[in-house]
Design goal:
Elements (H helix, E strand, L loop, with lengths): L2 E7 L2 E6 L2 E6 L3 H10 L10 E6 L9 H12 L1 E3 L4 H20 L10 H21 L5 E5 L6 H8 L4 E5 L7 H4 L4 H11 L4 E4 L2 H15 L3 E2 L2 E3 L4 E6 L6 H8 L2 H13 L4 E8 L6 H14 L7 E8 L6 H21 L7 E5 L4 H10 L2 E4 L8 H9 L6 E5 L12 E3 L4 H13 L2 H17 L2 H11 L1
Parallel strand pairs: 1-4, 1-6, 4-5, 6-7, 7-8, 8-11, 12-13, 12-15, 13-14, 15-16, 16-17
Antiparallel strand pairs: 2-3, 9-10, 10-11
Helix pairs in contact: 1-17, 3-4, 7-8, 9-14, 10-13, 11-12, 11-15
Length: about 475
């Protein structure tokens, strides 16, 4: 038995250099997490794995054979090549202009274009044919995320005895939101997902939302998460994704990281640090976070020149007009706060519009007194767990949006509603003034939970159930 993993992106990044195409391992959370599981003693996949996915860029037809060979030999991967037109209509179109806003409850931003749906169906069929090249009798197939909601049923139609698992890494919305999809699309999506023998979600709420939609749209009842279909049973269950806890916790105590943490703290002078790290996206609530910090500074003048917000925004979809407008709004808010409250000796917001490798993020996590994680909606949010894992001395305070999947596990965090600006401002004040013993009591409980249910346990539980 081998494991066939299917996701939109391969765990391989392709770039073009002077010597032609360059290959490197992707640092993405899913890729690194599954690599950790596959290399762990807990892994029960006897014959290794094959990872099926898009290589992240267009590849000239004459280079496809070489890319396929190197991906197979160096990364146990099978690349799926898409035309630029299909990539645009599938990824930027149906995935990110229809499913992403709808499943994150931004219904006014949803696009309903037939050509995008047609591309989504077409690409799911392309991936089905590609996966069939890698699948052998007895294999397990694990499909990931909203890009491939139709794929489980397509594979099951070709190989009825194949064991197929599907995991959704974003929220599954309530029935009233999901039903906004045109009737033929929503039925096809649910039928497609039910092609899997096991369907996993981050939280119990997402699981219930899916089962409610299945009952009200398709008419299938369930018994304790088991959906009775005409020819088989599909199991629907909750598997909250963890992180590589030991990696984050262990590296945070390494001498080089401790030195980098101390250097980072020194650079802030006597200021306490509030950290915010997010990809540029409307679901992340970055503007609300800045407004809350502004209200906090207005209401708490005693904290002026004693606190700094370190705001890291990772570029995303830089060519999309809505995202450019969002970036402009964030730039203006940062400038407004720094202009209103800043002095020659104190900058209230240190703003970085760039991505950081893990070795640079770890000192930031370890040095920051408060972590501000306040998305408007998020499937899980692993940044919150990474902060907890990096706090080796069990100090620090996590402020966490109740709209994230992580709140179901990190109940000791200061929970806020990201639409309540004054409430978030008050939470920042409470976090900065929290006594060390109270910090440790909360952080130790969250660290133990993250340690017990790490990414290896998550993957192992899912595959054992499958």
């Amino acid at each position: 038995m081998k494991l066939v993993i299917i996701s939109n992106r391969l765990p391989v990044s392709l770039s073009e250099g002077e010597g032609g195409l360059q290959f490197s391992q992707s640092p993405g959370g899913l890729a690194s997490g599954l690599r950790t599981y596959l290399n762990s003693p807990s892994c029960k996949v006897g014959s290794g794995y094959v990872w099926v996915g898009w290589p992240g860029r267009s590849v000239a037809p004459e280079l496809e054979a070489e890319v396929t060979r190197r991906c197979r030999e160096e990364f146990s991967a099978l690349p799926v090549f898409l035309s630029p037109e299909d990539t645009e209509a599938f990824y930027e179109g149906f995935c990110n202009s229809t499913l992403w806003p709808l499943f994150h409850y931004f219904s006014t931003l949803v696009s309903y274009r037939e050509e995008h749906w047609a591309a989504y169906e077409r690409v799911n069929r392309v991936f089905c044919e590609a996966a069939l090249q890698a699948i052998e009798p007895g294999d397990l197939v694990w499909i990931h995320d909203y890009h491939f909601l139709l794929l489980p049923a397509l594979l099951k139609q070709k190989l009825p005895d194949l064991r197929v698992g599907f995991f959704l890494h974003i929220p599954f919305p309530s029935y009233e939101i999901f039903r906004l999809l045109p009737s033929s699309w929503r039925s096809a999506v649910l039928d497609g997902m039910l092609g899997a023998d096991l369907i996993g979600f981050h939280t119990h709420d997402y699981t219930l939302h899916f089962l409610t939609s299945v009952r009200r749209i398709l008419g299938h009842e369930h018994e304790m998460g088991q959906v009775i279909l005409a020819d088989r049973v599909a199991e629907v269950d909750t598997f909250p994704m963890g992180i590589e806890f030991d990696t984050f916790s262990g590296r945070a105590t390494e001498e080089t990281m401790v030195r980098a943490r101390d250097d980072f703290r020194k650079s802030l002078g006597n200021c306490r640090a509030v950290l915010s790290i997010d990809r540029l996206d409307y679901s992340k609530g970055i503007a609300n976070r800045l407004l809350a910090y502004k209200v906090f500074l207005e209401d708490n003048p005693s904290w002026h020149a004693r606190v700094v917000l370190i705001m890291v925004v990772v570029p995303s979809r830089t060519g999309v007009e809505d995202y450019q407008r969002m970036k402009s709004q964030i730039d203006e808010l940062v400038g407004n706060i720094n202009g209103k409250f800043g002095t020659p000796a104190w900058t209230p917001v240190i703003y970085q519009y760039r991505s950081f490798p893990q070795e640079q993020l770890l000192p930031m996590y370890a040095a920051s007194d408060v972590m501000l994680v306040t998305p408007l909606r998020d499937g899980m949010n692993l940044v919150a767990k990474e902060y907890v894992a990096s706090r080796a001395d069990a100090t620090g305070v996590l402020i966490l949006s109740e709209m994230t999947g992580a709140t179901s596990e990190l109940g000791e965090a200061l929970t806020v509603n990201p639409n309540d600006i004054p409430g978030m401002a008050r939470a920042i004040a409470v976090a900065l003034e929290m006594p060390a013993d109270a910090q440790k009591q909360s952080m130790q409980a969250m660290r133990e939970r993250c340690r017990r249910y790490d990414v290896v346990r998550w993957a192992g539980d899912f595959l054992d159930s499958l």
